C-alpha cells in the first residue's frame, strides 16, 4: 500500500516549525530530510525514523517496524500530533545522522 499525499502533508505541517524540511517521492512512499540529512520517511501512512541512539532514547517505548519487505527496521513515531515532540526528536537525532553522500558527477568525454 502506498502512502497518501494527505498524510505526507499532515507530517510536513507538523514539522513546519523546523527549518529545511524536504521530501522526495520514492516508489509510492516519501523519504524525509532534515537539513539535508535523511531522517526517515512516510511508509504506508506511517512516520518511521532511523533508529539512532538519540531516537531510541527519545522514544524508549517505540516499536521497530519495517518500512517495506526486506528493509532494515525503523522506529515508528506514534506522537505525530505533538509538534514539539516531533521537533525535539529530529533535533536530537540530527548529529547522529550520516552526512549526505556526494553525488557522482557525469564522466567527462573528450
From TrEMBL:
Matches recorded under Gene3D superfamilies:
YgaC/TfoX-N like chaperone (3.30.1460.30)
Taxonomically, the superkingdom here is Bacteria
The name on file for this protein is TfoX N-terminal domain protein
